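Milestone 3.1: sequence recovery, worked example.
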């Protein structure tokens, strides 16, 4: 990569990979990852998150899944953000069942959903026209005292049966839950 000057470090590679992914230059990003590893610089979870998200944005589902599997093989521990990126990407591809399974596996692996991960999966189910699963997840989320964000709430209001949903939130709010 460089012939003179300081050698690139993990931060440099992460910055370059982020730029390549954001500009849709995914083949170059994967080549750079390989070059980085050949230089004995091992990727971290931040770098994997950048690559996985970039692959999903470009619609490269299988590559994103391979990278997710590879991080375990590389001995890297995913984060709640990694799982949330995967769940969002799977939902974007219409793979609701797989996203839901990963959401539950995330918990089994000791990563407990946060407000962001709940909002991502709820929005995904609403976009995929599965309001019953979304409502069950909302009940679970509110039961854990997490808040529904404004974009999720707006999607709920757009549903035909929003009166029942609003009523549920008002009831939850009167019991001290945050909305």
């Amino acid at each position: 990569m460089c012939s003179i000057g300081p050698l690139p470090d993990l931060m440099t590679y992460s910055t370059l990979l982020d730029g390549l992914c954001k500009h849709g230059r995914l083949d170059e990003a994967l080549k750079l990852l390989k070059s980085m590893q050949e230089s004995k610089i091992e990727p971290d979870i931040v770098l994997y998150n950048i690559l996985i998200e970039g692959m999903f944005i470009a619609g490269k589902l299988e590559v994103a899944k391979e990278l997710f599997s590879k991080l375990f093989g590389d001995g890297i521990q995913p984060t709640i953000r990694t799982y949330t990126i995967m769940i969002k990407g799977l939902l974007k591809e219409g793979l609701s069942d797989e996203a839901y399974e990963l959401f539950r596996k995330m918990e089994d692996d000791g990563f407990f959903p946060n407000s962001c991960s709940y909002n991502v999966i709820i929005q995904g189910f609403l976009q995929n026209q599965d309001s019953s699963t979304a409502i069950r997840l909302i009940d679970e989320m509110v039961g854990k005292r997490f808040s529904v964000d404004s974009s999720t709430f707006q999607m709920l209001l757009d549903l035909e049966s929003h009166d029942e949903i609003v009523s549920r939130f008002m009831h939850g709010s009167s019991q001290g839950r945050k909305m």
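The radius of gyration is 19 Å. Residues 173-179 have pLDDT under 50 and may be disordered.
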